[in-house]
């Protein structure tokens, strides 16, 4: 079998037995590893700083909470009671009524300090308001305007009561004659009537006999 000849186009074939210079590649690998270590070190320092900030913030919030003594809470409650003693509740207020019109309606009772018309989450009036006076004596004068007419509607005027934190207003249960009096948490159970045929027994029905004239 004759040897075949292979022609090579281009440059000379490099000698595969020669040593390849890998020093440049080793330098790049070492530089990349060093940069990665520095990034990890910086990330660890940032995490430690964030943990220290969170700890400091929690400490400050704890100190601020401890600074609020019961005396300040009682003072704020007393101030609220004093403001409520100079205020009245106005119900059945027209939805188109403005605070200026409510103030003008109660202007003859005394100096009006503030008028608050409560609204829902959509900004629509709820139909009642609070009127705060400067003088305590103006509350008695404002109570005389109960069932007076404002915007064509009879308003209800009553003294404002103070809401005590942690206290819930007691509302008695209504009498319901269909459930045997006052409602309970248990569902209504019909009364039990024993069966006249005995426990677990049912009346026995016999088939009617056929008519046989003969």
TrEMBL record:
It is found in: Cytoplasm; Nucleus speckle. SUPFAM superfamilies: RNA-binding domain, RBD (SSF54928). GO terms for cellular component: cytoplasm; nuclear speck. Keywords: Coiled coil, Cytoplasm, Nucleus, RNA-binding. InterPro entries: Nucleotide-bd_a/b_plait_sf, RBD_domain_sf, RRM_dom. GO terms for molecular function: poly(A) binding. Residues 21-34 have a biased composition (Basic and acidic residues). PROSITE patterns: RRM (PS50102). It comes from the Eukaryota. Residues 1-34, 61-83 are annotated as: Disordered. This is RRM domain-containing protein. It comes from Canna indica (Indian-shot). The lineage of its organism: Eukaryota, Viridiplantae, Streptophyta, Embryophyta, Tracheophyta.
């Amino acid at each position: 079998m004759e040897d075949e000849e292979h022609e090579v186009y281009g440059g000379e074939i490099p000698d595969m037995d020669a040593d390849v210079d890998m020093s440049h590649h080793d330098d790049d690998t070492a530089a990349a590893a060093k940069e990665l270590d520095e990034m990890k070190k910086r990330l660890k320092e940032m995490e430690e700083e964030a943990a220290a900030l969170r700890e400091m913030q929690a400490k400050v919030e704890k100190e601020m909470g401890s600074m609020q003594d019961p005396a300040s809470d009682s003072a704020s409650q007393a101030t609220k009671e004093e403001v409520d003693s100079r205020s009245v509740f106005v119900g059945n207020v027209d939805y188109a009524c403005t605070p200026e019109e409510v103030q003008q309606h109660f202007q003859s009772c005394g100096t009006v300090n503030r008028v608050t018309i409560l609204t829902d989450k959509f900004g629509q009036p709820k139909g009642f308001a609070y009127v705060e006076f400067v003088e305590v004596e103006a509350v008695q004068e404002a109570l005389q305007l109960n069932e007076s007419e404002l915007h064509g509607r009879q308003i209800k005027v009553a003294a404002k009561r103070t809401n005590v934190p942690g206290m819930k207003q007691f509302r008695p249960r209504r009498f319901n004659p269909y459930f045997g009096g006052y409602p309970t948490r248990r569902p209504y159970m019909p009364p039990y009537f024993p069966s006249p045929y005995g426990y677990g027994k049912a009346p026995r029905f016999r088939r009617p006999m056929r008519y046989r004239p003969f």
